[in-house]
Design goal:
five-stranded parallel β-sheet, Rossmann fold, six-stranded mixed β-sheet, Immunoglobulin-like, binds 1-deoxynojirimycin
Length: 755
């Protein structure tokens, strides 16, 4: 550490100068071509290289050799380094390189930078593209104020298997909703101009299909028909790219036999030629090297060639381009044109950010102090946290609670702050977040009521898992019996019990697939015992994925799905629990009854033997129904809504024509609320079989008690098209169903005929 700082200081004492600034009016092409002409091969490969900084506990520290690489122009991009002073120091090393090409600083700003928002799966349950854009905007403002230029977000992988831990990072199972959120995120990060210093480059990931690994096991193979790709999995990437995303990250996985990182069809043909993507493609972490294990190449030398040829521009952390492309060029396995075009794409992003004019544009400590974790940012985090909560059950309208009598708060999530800000909270500091206890205890006391607390159980007792997740310090060392007895004692004194249970944040996210998606550890046992006391039980659930909650659904009185809500978690949950805020979220991923139904999703096909409980030889299980526990789009509130007057503006449609769908939605309860209205279609007969429902539109409307609003959706023949067996985008004549309602399972229907 000491040595590192000395080296830095020594280098800095040389005094920094800047790259030659663009001349007034000079075009990007001209400037970059001139620069390229001056570059040595090593300098070119440096621009194709991205290395991580080491983030030590005392602050970010770089390994010595990276400093030298930066200074010699052999590393042009750094990730995992932030902070205006630190990035300035590193940038000044680049300003001592021969050509003074500025470094690009990237980081995983996944759901906020320091103000942490809900995990993406949670936030998607708000079905609110404005909120999605606003959280990305704030993340970009904070990240750019903290020295960053580039975020590895949005993750738009469609995910239909909750065993896969990374479902937490995406927007769920649906391509239309996923596309809308992907676009919103790109708008939020990149704003209207990358030259604006409050914007960052977005990076659409993981291209492609990372969300469909076999058996939900992370990094596993993906084997998928092209029809499924084009109709379901690819649209969100395309949407984010059409919205102007500046970069794309290749996925780790093997796609139909060729890993994405060497998949020329994916990068060259689809992404660049067909979709017209003009930005740069970075690999995922060491994914070039990993192709040796995939077995599509014999060694790293071949892997590097395959990746560059497939259209990869930047090697994340693997040093394969750095180590092998010179030899590949000497042996004519790649051309200088291949290298140059990748270099120009990377330099292009630096130009777009304004770094050639001022490499220190993002290194202003005053700005960081002013803009990071401001009150407005935190308030927005609270608003979004509230909008992400989904009420799954509310028997006898037990919620919202009144702060009276004695309420026992039991569970590992009551006083927990670390887990509640969620997985991959990047630069977020959990100690700055509010716990549920901090939010509810003062309010109970102020109302003259009594709040009791017991932990009751650890999140898990699996010592291996505890070690892997590095959560030893959060584990209560008392025996399970002791923890449970204490919880039973306080529950017996209470009028009702609020159980805050769930997964630890590290049980979802990368490398966190689970084969059992029930409540981990002894939490379900604890819940059963507490329930056995016969008192009302409210369940608050923190998780990064849909859990299988059959027992819980049958027995407890109310269930609030609270995901991991970020910095303002406790406050948001408390407000909803006591009714200062109203739950409005709806699920964006189907909740199965048991893991055996997985993958389960609403847009399923009919099969030739549609489910019939009375017919043995139909498509079903012997031991469980086909239906999910909670369907896609589902969520209750503290008020209710009625749908009526559902109409289409026409009953027949020709290519190029538009039609309107309208429905009246009335708030039939006695609280003001917001309802998420959903529109689905079904193509009854297709040249290829079609899903039984496909989401096409949604709207979120605010309604006062008793108020009715007419919701109008405008659709066109484009909305009824699909990629047919030959991958043509077609409108096929015939009958369609148009359906509107509060979730994918409760829908009003009308018919439309395409001529
Ligand atoms: C691996 C992950 O798959 C990716 O999402 C992330 O952006 C990179 N590591 C960088 O941290």
């Amino acid at each position: 550490m000491k040595k590192t700082l000395l080296t830095l200081a020594a280098l800095l004492s040389l005094g920094a100068t800047m790259a030659q600034k663009p001349k007034a009016g000079e075009s990007k092409e001209n400037y970059l071509q001139n620069l390229l002409n001056k570059m040595t091969l090593d300098e070119k490969l440096g621009q194709l290289t991205l290395f991580t900084s080491d983030m030590a506990s005392t602050g970010p520290v770089m390994r010595d050799n990276y400093q030298l690489d930066i200074k010699s122009g052999k590393c042009g991009n750094i990730f995992n380094a932030y902070g205006p002073q630190y990035t300035r120091k590193l940038q000044s090393l680049a300003m001592h390189s021969r050509l003074k090409i500025p470094l690009l600083f990237g980081y995983d700003v996944i759901h906020g930078h320091k103000t942490i928002f809900p995990i993406p799966l949670g936030e998607s349950c708000a079905w609110d593209t404005l909120l999605s854009e606003q959280s990305a905007r704030i993340a970009a403002v904070e990240a750019s104020a903290d020295g960053l230029h580039w975020t590895y977000s949005p993750m738009v992988d469609i995910a239909r298997d909750p065993r896969w831990g990374r479902v937490a990072e995406g927007s769920g199972e649906d391509p239309v909703l996923g596309s809308a959120i992907g676009r919103a995120k790109v708008r939020g990060y990149q704003g209207t101009s990358l030259k604006d210093k409050s914007t960052v480059l977005s990076c659409v990931k993981h291209f492609a299909l990372y969300g469909a690994p076999v058996a939900g096991r992370d990094y596993n193979t993906v084997d998928m028909s092209k029809q499924q790709m084009f109709n379901v999995y690819l649209p969100p990437y395309k949407a984010a790219i059409d919205a102007g995303a500046a970069s794309v990250m290749s996925s780790f996985n093997d796609i139909n036999g060729i890993p994405a990182t060497a998949n020329s069809w994916l990068m060259n043909d689809l992404l660049r030629k067909q979709w017209g993507f003009k930005g740069f493609v970075v690999t995922d972490y060491t994914s070039i090297n990993e192709m040796v294990y995939h077995g599509n190449v014999a060694n790293e030398y071949e892997a590097g060639i395959a990746a560059l040829k497939a259209g990869i521009d930047m090697d994340m952390q693997g040093a394969v381009f750095y180590n092998y492309l010179k030899k590949a060029l000497d042996e004519n396995k790649v051309s200088m044109t291949d290298i140059d075009q990748a270099v120009l794409r990377v330099l292009g992003a630096k130009w777009d950010l304004g770094l050639f004019e001022d490499p220190y544009l993002y290194c202003d400590p005053k700005r960081a102090a002013r803009e990071i974790m401001s009150k407005e940012n935190l308030d927005k985090a609270e608003e979004i946290a509230e909008a992400s909560v989904v009420l799954l059950k509310n028997k006898g309208n037990i919620l919202p609670l009144q702060a009276k009598g004695t309420i026992a708060f039991i569970g590992p999530m009551v006083k927990n702050k670390r887990d509640l800000i969620g997985n991959w909270s990047g630069a977020g500091n959990w100690t700055q977040s509010t716990s549920l206890w901090e939010a509810i205890e003062p309010r109970m006391t102020a109302a003259g009521a009594k709040a009791l607390y017991a932990m009751g159980a650890n999140v898990t007792n699996d010592t291996n898992l505890i070690k892997k997740m590095n959560i030893q310090e959060f584990i209560d060392k008392r025996s399970q019996d002791e923890l449970e007895n204490e919880a039973m004692q306080i529950a017996m004194q209470a009028d009702m019990v609020v159980m805050a249970l769930g997964e630890s944040e590290g049980m979802s996210g990368e490398a966190a697939s689970r084969s059992d998606i029930t409540l981990p550890g002894t939490q379900l046992e604890l819940l059963k015992k507490i329930h056995g006391l016969g008192k009302p039980v409210i369940l608050l659930l923190s998780s990064g994925r849909p859990l299988a909650l059959s027992w819980e659904d049958q027995h407890v009185d109310a269930i609030l799905q609270t995901w991991f809500l970020g910095t303002r978690s406790g406050k948001a949950i408390g407000d909803i629990l006591f009714g200062d805020a109203i739950p409005t979220g709806k699920l964006t991923m189907t909740f199965p009854r048991s893991v055996g139904q997985v993958p389960i999703y609403y847009a399923a096909k009919s099969t030739g033997r549609p489910f019939d409980p009375n017919q043995k030889y139909t498509s079903k299980y012997l031991d469980i129904e086909n239906t999910p526990l909670y369907p896609f789009g589902y969520g209750l509130s503290y008020t209710t809504y009625a749908y009526s007057n559902f109409k289409l503006s026409k009953n027949t449609l020709a290519e190029g024509e538009y039609f309107d769908v309208q429905v009246d939605v009335k708030n039939t309860g006695n609280r003001a609320g917001k309802e998420i209205v959903q529109l689905y279609t079904r193509d009854l007969v297709g040249s290829s079989t079609r899903p039984m429902k496909e989401l096409k539109r949604f709207a979120k409307i605010a309604l006062e008690p008793g108020e009715t609003k007419t919701v109008r959706f405008n659709l066109s023949s484009e909305d009824l098209k699909f990629f047919n067996y030959d991958l043509n985008w077609v409108l096929e004549p015939g009958k369609f169903k148009v359906m509107v309602g509060p979730n994918s399972n409760e829908l009003l229907e009308a018919e439309l005929e395409v001529k």
